[in-house]
Write a structure and sequence with these properties.
Blueprint: E1 4-8, H1 15-28, E2 33-37, H2 43-53, H3 61-85, E3 89-93, H4 96-106, H5 111-122, E4 129-134, H6 137-144, H7 157-173, E5 178-182, H8 188-203
The chain binds thymidine-5'-diphosphate.
Residues 11, 16, 38-39, 53, 68, 93-94, 98-99, 102-103, 150, 152-153 line the site of thymidine-5'-diphosphate (TYD).
């Protein structure tokens, strides 16, 4: 069993906040951990990220998918693989499920094909545990609008709703790997508490 944990959800769901809190918690328990994010996390992947999120770029769904996968492949090879091998906790802000949810359910590309492409890009490295943080669209919209929106975030409410439904479907496939957290009306601390509880149980931390 590896300690590769991914965090997923629609834009503005609070993943980044929860990852940072979990990392601090793991530090307090003397558990080595690293945080990475997608798209990005390496020099090349950050360059690809800039292309993907630039509102000035008109990118078709196929090119978009291949760029996300290229960024992922580089991140897996440079960072994720070796940290897993060193038995560290790897906390990843988005991973393969983002491609399934956004490019598959959102853009309408073939899910089975995307699964195969994900496996190719990751060399079959798969998360041990995935937290899916679910929020409603109006909450997402409120949070996104507080920041400077990027190319993906300007795809609209209908697109985001498809992504949200996609995450629900993905989470239902494997109840052992996916932990779906309904974050509506919950505060940051209570979400953190439920994440910590799952981590403690699964990795026998006390
Ligand atoms: P980011 O600013 O990192 O968003 P967030 O803070 O919500 O994670 O931007 C990443 C965007 O890229 C986000 O809208 C989700 C999207 N995305 C995909 O469409 N496919 C993917 O495979 C990945 C990794 C991200």
């Amino acid at each position: 069993m590896n300690k590769f944990i991914t965090f997923e959800g629609i834009d503005g769901c609070g993943k980044t906040t929860q990852i940072n809190l979990l990392s601090k918690y793991l530090d307090s328990k003397k558990q080595d951990n690293v945080i990475v994010r997608e798209p990005g996390g390496t020099k090349i992947s950050e360059k690809i990220r800039a292309i993907l999120l630039d509102k000035g770029n008109d990118i078709n769904s196929y090119t978009e998918t291949l760029l996300f996968l290229s960024s992922r492949s580089q991140l897996v090879n440079e960072i994720i693989k070796k940290n897993i091998e060193q038995n560290k906790f790897v906390l990843c802000d988005r991973f393969t499920d983002s491609t399934l949810a956004y490019q598959g359910y959102g853009r309408g590309l073939n899910i089975q094909l995307l699964n195969d492409l994900n496996n190719f890009a990751t060399q079959n490295i798969s998360p041990d545990l995935t937290f899916v943080l679910d929020i409603n669209l109006s909450e997402s919209n409120k949070r996104i609008n507080k920041r400077n929106i990027d190319r993906m975030e300007q795809s609209g409410k209908e697109f985001l709703n498809k992504v949200k439904i996609g995450y629900q479907k993905i989470s239902n496939i494997d109840k052992d790997r996916y932990i779906f957290i309904d974050c509506c009306g919950k505060d940051i601390d209570s979400i953190h508490f439920s994440i910590v509880k799952s981590i403690n149980e699964r990795y026998k931390i006390n």
